[in-house]
Design a protein that fits this description.
This protein has a domain of 136 residues: 3-Layer(aba) Sandwich (Rossmann fold). It contains 8 helices and 11 strands. The protein binds adenosine-5'-triphosphate and the ligand Nc1nc2c(ncn2[C@@H]2O[C@H](COP(=O)(O)O)[C@@H](O)[C@H]2O)c(=O)[nH]1. The site of the ligand Nc1nc2c(ncn2[C@@H]2O[C@H](COP(=O)(O)O)[C@@H](O)[C@H]2O)c(=O)[nH]1 has 15 residues, from β6, β7 and α4. Keywords: ATP-binding, Cytoplasm, Kinase, Nucleotide-binding, Transferase.
Length: 228
């Protein structure tokens, strides 16, 4: 496992390779919300400010929006290719959302986690339920709410990347999506992006310090106690 590089989980006295080195398996930070509440916006900000978290790039059969880049925003697949990945177990979770297929490629996530990196997911409640069954201990689930229904519609419209029909379809599903908020650990009302980002970073920092996530802690404490 890679040596920890941040003071967030390197205790005082930690030296690379030393017995008291603390490492941890990465955690899986899930963001869900009704469409347009701000997951993509917050994810980009978090990724720009935290170099220990990696985005899970989903596969989808939805067509690219203007400006979206294949391999960065999504891997855009044909339905046949998506089905092949799903049927060969290459997806950690998958769901049909707004009539398109979406899924999380397994390999990249497993590699990142075992290297001690955290992974950020922008997925819906169906995918979150599936991850909860397979990776409950690693999962941190955050649900974003818009401040008002009017704000949500305005955000979908000002994003200006979807047709009126698509905006209408997404608004009509928002209430159902929101009904799943009770399945999440944390709720952020995304009024102000800077404020939401600060809260998201605080959640991440606290979750990284959870005792059960730290490997090597028992040895560290043993060494410490022996030296007393
Ligand atoms: N706190 C905020 N205040 C005002 N506008 C916001 C806020 N957060 C995001 N937005 C804007 O709302 C629009 C939708 O945001 P974004 O694309 O991040 O939503 P999303 O949850 O990722 O949507 P989807 O589920 O459809 O992918 C964007 O134009 C974004 O700039
Ligand atoms: N279960 C999954 N849901 C996903 C995945 N990737 C994205 N999504 C969710 O789909 C909707 C629509 O996204 P959009 O980019 O078309 O606006 C949104 O709720 C995403 O969170 C995935 O891999 N699995």
């Amino acid at each position: 496992m890679a040596a920890p590089t941040s003071s967030h989980f390197a205790l005082p006295g930690w030296k690379p390779g030393s017995r008291s080195g603390l490492a941890r398996r990465g955690l899986m930070l899930v963001l869900s919300s009704p469409s347009g509440a701000g997951k993509t916006t917050l994810s980009r900000r978090l990724l720009a400010e935290d170099d220990r978290i990696t985005m899970s790039v989903s596969v989808t059969t939805r067509p690219p929006r203007p400006g979206e880049v294949d391999g960065k925003d999504y891997f855009f697949l044909t339905p046949d290719r998506f089905t092949e990945m799903r049927d060969t177990g290459a997806l950690l979770e998958h769901a049909t959302v707004f009539g398109n297929f979406y899924g999380t490629p397994r390999e990249a996530v497993e590699e990142a986690l075992s290297a001690g990196r955290d992974v950020l997911f922008d997925i819906d409640w169906q995918g979150t339920q599936q991850l909860d069954q397979s990776a409950q201990q690693d999962l941190v689930k955050v649900f974003l709410l818009p401040p008002t229904a009017g704000d949500l519609e305005k955000r979908l419209r000002t994003r200006a990347q979807d047709s009126d029909e698509v905006v209408h379809q997404r608004m009509s599903k928002a209430s159902d999506e929101i009904s799943h908020y009770t399945e999440y650990d944390y709720i952020l009302i995304n009024q102000d992006v800077d404020d939401s980002l600060a809260k998201l970073k605080a959640i991440l920092q606290a979750e990284r310090l959870k005792r059960r996530r730290l490997t090597g802690l028992a040895d560290f404490v043993k060494d410490l106690r022996e030296a007393l």
